[in-house]
Design a protein that fits this description.
The structure holds two protein chains of two kinds. Chain A has twelve helices and no strands. By secondary structure, chain A is mainly alpha-helical. Chain A has one domain: MetI-like fold (Orthogonal Bundle). In chain A, about 40% of the residues are buried. Chain B has one domain: P-loop containing nucleotide triphosphate hydrolases (Rossmann fold). Chain B is built from eleven helices and ten strands. In chain B, strand 9 and strand 10 form a beta hairpin. Classes of the chains: A mainly alpha, B alpha/beta.
Chain lengths: ~280, ~270
């Protein structure tokens, strides 16, 4: 019983990878791998069809990086405050609020980005910014992943042994030194893991990108532009823009495989670094 | 800032103190409403090792933590009475607890080096105390501290190695070096050898005898042989019927062990209680 339950997730991942690989191999029967990876034009849904995935990758990278620049400082500051400064009551309230934030459906975030952040906050401030923009997507994903950074980093800091804090105080350290020179370095591997996890979550985020990013594929590094990310392209095609069996239908599996691969690489890197830095108390 | 300066300066011992560096007057500590220790009156002599002994739960560690205001960090702990360091009331509102801890250092039960290199562990106290030292001065200070803690010969070739690569006994000597590096006047040790093997314990006891001329040392232990071996003075604590820790006897170690005045002390050191 338990064995079959635990093997279910294993079977699921095998089936998913299998599907991705098989369907992608059909795609790569039509399009060369080199063209897919290096091409800078992605015009799958209209003629002349071009299959260069770079614009989608760049869009995903830009939105994810913007998200991280929001989530790392805010998330870490929250974690430090909760773990080291807040009293037990405040800690409980803020922590459950943060967890509430993690429970909001991402489609709500998407509309929030499109109907609130873009028109009210970004468009008045930044010239040349449209309703759809990579910036709006990135900022909103940033808010979405704050709970990941905050909660996991807070766990890492909170679990730093009290011995270290006492030792530091006994040497005449002030609270600031204890937090920044003892607790933070000791929790670094956990903090790093939380950031990588948040980053892969940002790359995989679909609804916000699909709603607030627009469906225009545009090869640009300007975050004011509307851009389609890898995930929002998959969502667009998978929800019915391309008939089954066509090359554009197959292309979403290739994009999916690429996304899966990139995410996996990051997770492995995170794992390796965490293992290497891991401090055994 | 003023408070810090007053505390850090090593004032000459005042005549009336009779050589006492720390004087405890009517000290009591309570956690919430429950008193852990009460009516403690003691003088800790300069350049001497004083052992505080007694059975578990008698408040030895609580008393020790009062002496450098580590009890401030325990949320419910409330300290009543006075603790004077060279005539200064360390619980006075003008005194900065951080400054108190730089002159009265502490070593804990379990070796607790920071997850950093051996060098950085010793340098930590110097760095957080805002001492402006160049690289050579820093290296000198670290070396001095490690020599005093009898660890230099074992680690001089691997100062950059993580502190956790050391054995338990070495880690504890590293913690002593770390405390010595900030050049304290008094060192408090809270059962420093309780987690160590006999050889490491012997090394630490020997080390304490070596450094006791430069520092005033107060060591909490529940190992009576250890108290007899290393200390000049011994304070015996015992919980009363309400489990409040009381000081029952205090005097030169020799007298306490050969000719105890209190019946409970005699019972305790002969192994009948505790």
């Amino acid at each position: 019983m338990l064995l079959s339950a635990s093997s279910l997730s294993f079977i699921a991942i095998v089936v998913i990878i299998g599907t991705l690989v098989i369907e992608s191999s059909i795609f790569f029967g039509h399009v060369s791998f080199i063209e897919f990876i290096t091409g800078t034009e992605w015009t799958v849904l209209f003629e002349p069809k071009k299959f260069g995935v770079q614009p989608l990758v760049v869009a995903t990278a830009i939105t994810s990086l913007i998200a991280l620049t929001v989530a790392i400082p805010v998330g870490l500051a929250t974690a430090i405050y909760l773990s080291e400064y807040a009293g037990p009551t405040v800690r409980r309230i803020v922590k459950s609020t943060i967890e509430l934030l993690a429970g909001i459906p991402t489609v709500v975030y998407g509309y929030f980005a499109l109907y609130f952040i873009s028109p009210n906050l970004l468009m008045p401030l930044i010239e040349g910014l449209g309703v759809h923009s990579a910036l709006a997507v990135g900022l909103t994903i940033g808010v979405l992943i704050i709970p990941i950074v905050a909660s996991l980093s807070e766990d890492a800091m909170y679990s730093v042994p009290e011995d270290f804090r006492l030792a530091a105080y006994s040497l005449g350290a002030r609270k600031m030194d204890v937090v920044f020179k003892v607790v933070l370095p000791a929790a670094l591997s956990g903090i790093f893991a939380s950031i990588i996890l948040a980053f892969t979550r940002a790359m995989g985020e679909t609804m916000i990108a699909a709603i607030a990013g627009g469906f225009r594929v545009f090869y640009s590094f300007d975050p004011r532009e509307a851009m389609q990310t890898m995930t929002s392209f998959i969502a667009q095609v998978a929800t019915g823009d391309a008939p089954h069996g066509t090359v554009e239908y197959q292309s979403i599996f290739a994009v999916g495989l690429l996304l899966f691969f990139v995410t996996m690489v990051f997770n492995v890197i995170a794992l390796l670094i965490v293992r290497r830095w891991q401090i055994r108390y | 800032m003023l408070a810090k300066r007053i505390v850090v300066e090593r004032e000459p011992v005042r005549v009336g103190d009779g050589g006492a560096v720390i004087e405890v007057k009517d000290l009591a500590v309570r956690y919430g409403k429950k008193y852990a220790i009460k009516d403690i009156n003691l003088k800790f002599e300069r350049s001497q090792i004083t052992a505080i002994i007694g059975p578990s739960g008698c408040g030895k560690s609580t008393l020790l933590r009062c002496l450098n205001r580590m009890n401030d960090l325990i949320p419910d702990a409330k300290v009543e009475g006075k603790v004077y360091y060279r005539g200064i009331d360390i619980y006075d509102h003008t005194v900065d607890p951080v400054a108190v801890r730089t002159v009265i250092g502490m070593v804990f039960q379990r070796p607790n080096p920071f997850p950093m290199s051996i060098f950085d562990n010793v340098a930590f106290g110097l760095r957080v105390n805002g001492m402006k030292l160049n690289k050579t001065q820093m290296q000198e200070k670290v070396k001095d501290a490690l020599i005093k803690a009898a660890l230099w010969d074992e680690v001089k070739d691997r100062l950059d190695a993580p502190a956790y690569s050391l054995s338990g006994g070495q880690q504890q000597r590293l913690c002593i070096a770390r405390a010595l590096a900030v050049d304290p006047d008094v060192i408090l040790l809270d059962e420093p050898t309780v987690s160590l093997d006999p050889i490491s314990t012997a090394k630490i006891e020997q080390l304490l005898r070596q450094i006791c001329y430069d520092y005033t040392i107060i060591i909490v232990t529940h190992n009576m042989q250890q108290a007899a071996r290393v200390s000049d003075y011994t304070a015996v604590m015992m919980p009363d019927e309400q489990m409040i820790g009381r000081l029952i006897e205090y005097g030169p170690t020799k007298e306490i062990f050969t000719n105890p005045r209190d019946k409970r002390t005699e019972d305790y050191i002969s192994g009948r209680i505790g």
